[in-house]
Amino acid sequence: MSKISTFFKGGGSAGSKGRGGPSPQEALARLRETEEMLSKKQEYLETRIERELAVARQHGTKNKRAALQALKRKKRYEKQLNQIDGTLSTIEFQREALENSHTNTEVLKNMGYAAQAMKKVHENMDLNKIDDLMQDITEQQDVAQEISDAISNRGTFGDEFDE
Q1: Is this prediction's pTM over 0.85?
Q2: Taking the mean position of all CA atoms in its chain, how far away is CA 138?
C-alpha cells in the first residue's frame, strides 16, 4: 500500500484505538481545535490582505509593477480566505450535526433507562389485583355516599320525631 493511500485511510490514528472510532467528545474537541486554527489563519490572511493593499496604494502610479505584484498577492490571499470560509462553514455544520447526534443519543439512553425503571416499578403490579382494588374503592365510595345522603336527608329524620 502506498504512503498516500495509508495517509488518506487514516492508518491507525491515536483516537480510535480499536474501539471503532473516536468518541463524540473527542471528535467535537478536534473539530473545535480545527475551527480555532482556521480562525487564526483567517485573521492572519486578513492582515496580510490589508498590508498588500497598503503596499499597492503606497506604490500607486510611481511603481506600477510593485503595485500590481501587491494586488496579485492580495488576490491570492483573498482566494485562500474564501476557501477557509467554506471549510469553516463545513466544519461548523459537521460539529453542530455531531452535537445534535450526541444529544439525541443521550436522550435515547435516558428514555431507555426510564422505561426500564417503569418496568421494574410495574413488575409487582397485577392488573387483576388493581381491578379488584378499584372495585373495592368504588364500593366504599358508594357506601360513604349512602351514609352521607342518609345523614344529610333531614326530611325523613324530622318525620320520625313526634312531639
Answers
A1: no
A2: 48
